[in-house]
């Protein structure tokens, strides 16, 4: 019996497991096991809308179990990969330790916000998971409530200042969604003057949205500036302190600070004793096979996969999905004694949502802006959702959101106390 | 200027504020202020469905601000009521203290789960708020995941044992929803034998569902027993320990213990220095005016309002809503020098959902069971939602739920860490 073990339940891991199922059909000489920390997979590009409430939070996730057919799913957190014994140790909820032997290991553990670039990063919110989206939403609404009740104008302005650190896709899309959200809900806060609400975005690099061509990036900046946001490139943040951000030209008091300045491989991926590159990503051949351990494979944000031009592929969902399919084919080829093929994929395009039915996109050389770009982006992600029940719910959420304003309900986050960890 | 201050954002407080707005029209000699811990109001009878995921969690809540017209809303937690100076002190998020002077005070602070009946109650989950519904949902799904991964059959059975303490409406409706949910989602857990999943309900009193007539209670018990639940009346729980429940005839190991054994007034209501009854509820006349302080009024779960027969009115949403309307009329009458009227209302009926499209109901003398009762209950609560955007979302949630199975996505609850409390 040949055991394939997939670690990680994101775009990469789930697509790989599903594709392995398809390729292996009813073959009973191979087992597939997927181990992930969460029992659902998140369509991360939709988290922005989940944060503002356009989309229900749960609707940007898909439970993993119903999406699998023959693969076994186990909810557990990877603790250690023993590449000599070919065993992965993982803890399930409640602390029970499980061991998973493997013949082929697929590492798709993803990335996490880079907290080492800016001192004091722990004082900022991050934007990577469902919990992050929920916490940011609640946080922002709480700041509006606080500002509405505040007697002192300085306190109020501080509550209403939002700083986003990082001008890449995540930072800009987040800024777009938050500015649109604020414009919509401020009518419910009669005591908050619109001008007191301030949005800042700081990018250390030379320009905003390096992922897109310069003309589209300019359009994005114009749209966001019209909503009153201040975007500055070439402006590194020196440090983050509780409630403020330090720049070269002085500090900025802010009630909300979100860090979106790049990602690093997940801790569990960093700890796997195979070769890594300088940024901690698993060093793989173009076939996605580990350079040091041929029965370990890696893809997505935790792998350094270089294209024919020698440059690494971008860390985007679009690529993770394609990598996963090729990787599944390669693993099956290796089992059957055939040669694995190098990964090669040219991006179909890049899209950035700006919130409030606006987006910019470049699609196979064509530039789209405004509503058409926004509509295309939505529809594209809709079809990335594996099953129709979720797609239907997403369509309905969006339809209703066209006719009604977003709301300001906080789904309160209660710390999981002792009672829940019996 | 006459200030009316309403404390509490549940059925009672919000209905009172809305009705005061209506009665006072454009009169500019009276202000209305509503202070509540949360900026939304929850349709508590829908929390069961939110827990199983039939309804989105956020859809059983309505933001308070858009539901008010002229009243001022402040999100703050009541700390102290100074009945001499006629001032309420409350803290907003972030710790800022605010003072609200009042001429008439309406106390609608509601109730909280009674933790003093059973030793060790802190080890149980409760079911009263949105956070409770979310925590219980996540907890239950986590137990399924854990059981699916568990190697030891004893561990597995413990994970899969659910105990509900209390056989009143809340306990029975919760048991109904949870059994139906388990039946639906277990197909995704191929390694869990259905017989290992056990549901127990213990009621200290002589019978299950004392709120309904005995025939309907029997129907409810039959429906739940068919789903494999064990319901025992006359069975007080001696104590709750982490992971188990002690009964007279021995302990029961359980991965999930939910306490639904009655409510007591909220701490903030208990602390108001006016006359209270033996159970801590504010002692009021039949007009809902405090017996000791005529400019304090109270309603709902924190007030002891007795009917013409000398018995207190039940602590149900239906009553709180009617009390609020009468109370609003009485406050306006008192301001205008007219006599307030005693509250008098006969219940229109009582309904208990049993989950999985089943319910029991007695409506103006008529008994309904099964699907018709369930449909009627849903529709009734739909129209308790103040605004159409929410109603529409609820209708769509329910429609989709008819065609698809519930899912097992946990919207993960992350403790609000230091970053969020900048």
TrEMBL record, chains A, B:
Residues in FAD/NAD(P)-binding domain copies: 3-324
GO process terms (BP): aerobic electron transport chain
Cofactor(s) the protein needs: FAD
InterPro entries linked to this entry: FAD/NAD-bd_sf, FAD/NAD-binding_dom, NADH-Q_oxidoreductase, NDH2-like_C
Origin: domain of life: Bacteria
Coiled-coil segments on the chain, per record: none
Keyword Flavoprotein included in the entry's annotation: yes
Pfam families to which the protein is assigned, alphabetical: NDH2_C, Pyr_redox_2
Keyword Cytoplasm recorded: no
Ranges where the External alternative NADH-ubiquinone oxidoreductase-like C-terminal domain occurs: 348-404
Keywords recorded for this protein, A-Z: FAD, Flavoprotein, Oxidoreductase, Plasmid
PANTHER family: 64 KDA MITOCHONDRIAL NADH DEHYDROGENASE (EUROFUNG), APOPTOSIS-INDUCING FACTOR 1
Family in the record: Belongs to the NADH dehydrogenase family.
Protein name, entry field: Pyridine nucleotide-disulfide oxidoreductase, FAD/NAD(P)-binding domain protein
